[in-house]
Here is the input.
Amino acid sequence: MVNKAMADLGNQPSVIRAIFEYSLKRKAQIGAQNVYDFSLGNPSIPAPQIVDDTIKELACGDSVALHGYTSAQGAMPVREQIAQNIKDRFGCDASAKNIYITCGAAASLTSTLKAVVNDGDEVILLAPYFPEYNVFCANAGAKTVAVLGVGENFSLDFEALDKAINKHTAAIIINSPNNPTGAIIPESDIIKLASLLNKKSEELGRAIYIIADEPYRELTYGDDVPYIPNFYNNTVVCYSYSKSLSLPGERIGYVFVSPHCDDAEDLFAAVCGAARSMGYVCAPSMMQRVIAKCDGMTADISLYNKNRELLYNSLSEIGYQAVKPQGAFYLFMKALEDDANAFCEKAKKHELLLVPADSFGAKGYVRISYCVAYDTIKNSIPAFKALFDEYNQK
Ligand code: PLP
Here is the structure.
């Protein structure tokens, strides 16, 4: 008999995917250039040249070795290289025995969650958050507890966090730079959070992990992103090359269990076991070799910065309210009515495809994904203006 919960999940695309599917249909009807699709976070900038050069070089080498299985955790030289880079870039203690190479951040997160969640556990999500966290947590058997940020940038609400943490709290997921707001959590807040979690862990007699979901770490426009393991011992970093190297379809990333976790060895074994139980062994072997050469590099993100400036400045000038994103490639904008779904339906009539933020845990906002061609943004501005005028003529 079919598992109903899984069939339901398979039959319901995410809101983002549903809008993307609509955009494909609409583009076929009226021409791609006439649809302003801001739905998906699919990088629009080519991977750096070294990625293609490395693939070509590898393809000319020993094919059997290249396409064969590696160790379940990933090839040792690649794990060593990643650990060395973590040490060099962040001054953080790291070794290959704490690195598990995965199929992107999604696999890193599902493996880590399954590794730290036990029966009856809860995971705290900082809203607004990436909606798939709900699916990943459910898969691990965890109940999610959303804590909405405060102020226009959705900063950490320490009072609400204090209340939300209890004897069932296994972990808190942090995503900075954030999808969907583009906000970066400043060092002062990380220090405060670490102190709160240490106090609560002590009081409750259990480790509370920070799961640092970092696919946007390198996508920043001037601000620093604190490296969480340097501030809090019980940290697991879930990294992905999907956005930094523009390789989302290649499915490659890693889990880094901080060696300073209370039970680092057991925890790493649990990550290996969780990944194994879900079939995430031996991430794509050619891509493992590619990232060994390209870890820490980025695609040309100055192009996203150009998009950010144009979009933010144009929307502000029209009269929309948004906070300028500090990183990633999303802009989080206040809808012009309380019901963001209704606002997005009206936007659709202007061929603007925006994502209502209800499923991100924040009502009354939309996410605009600006990893698109510069001209798409430029050409969409009259449509944004017409939408604004439609509301303001009433
Ligand atoms: N976490 C966040 C915040 C994301 O935005 C995404 C993808 O958009 C993921 C995780 C999943 O990344 P990956 O494609 O590497 O699995």
